[in-house]
Amino acid sequence: MDRPILNKDLDSNEFRDYYYLKEELIKFCKDNNLQTTGSKIEPVVCKLLSLQNLINSSFR
User: Fold this and answer.
1) Is 60 exceeded by the pLDDT of residue 60?
2) Do the Cβ atoms of 27 and 46 come closer than 8 Å?
3) CA-closest candidate to residue 31, choices 19, 16, 44, 18
4) Is residue 33 part of a domain?
5) What is residue 55's predicted lDDT score, i.e. its pLDDT?
6) pLDDT tens digit sequence for 2-28
7) C-alpha to C-alpha distance for 59 and 26, rounded to whole angstroms
8) Could you give the CA distance from residue 22 to residue 43 in angstroms, rounded to a whole number?
9) Would residue 49 count as lying in a domain?
């Protein structure tokens, strides 16, 4: 199975099911104006996706 593309539309649960390289996480953070330093990049991306999913579901 192919890994989904890392973007803001990715479900946070699906994000947790796959491994993303640190370089991919940093690019995602830069593209979305998020902090890119430190060792906590993955939790930041996961939190962003969770919030994005919550926002998207409230406007459906």
Assistant:
1) no
2) no
3) 44
4) yes
5) 65
6) 899 888 888 878 888 888 888 888 888
7) 29
8) 12
9) yes
* Six token digits for residue 19: 């491994």
Q: Is residue 6 part of a domain?
A: no
Instruction: Indicate the pTM of the whole model.
Output: 0.65
What is the rounded radius of gyration, in angstroms, for the C-alpha atoms of the chain? 11
- Provide the domain count of the chain: 1
- 3-state SS, the chain, equals CCCCCCCCCCCHHHHHCCCCCHHHHHHHHHHCCCCCCCCCHHHHHHHHHHHHHHHHHHCC
Residue recorded with tokens 């906590």? 40
Task: Give me the domain span that covers residue 31.
Answer: 12-58
Please check whether residue 1 lies inside any domain of the structure.
Answer: no
The amino acid at residue 46 is: C
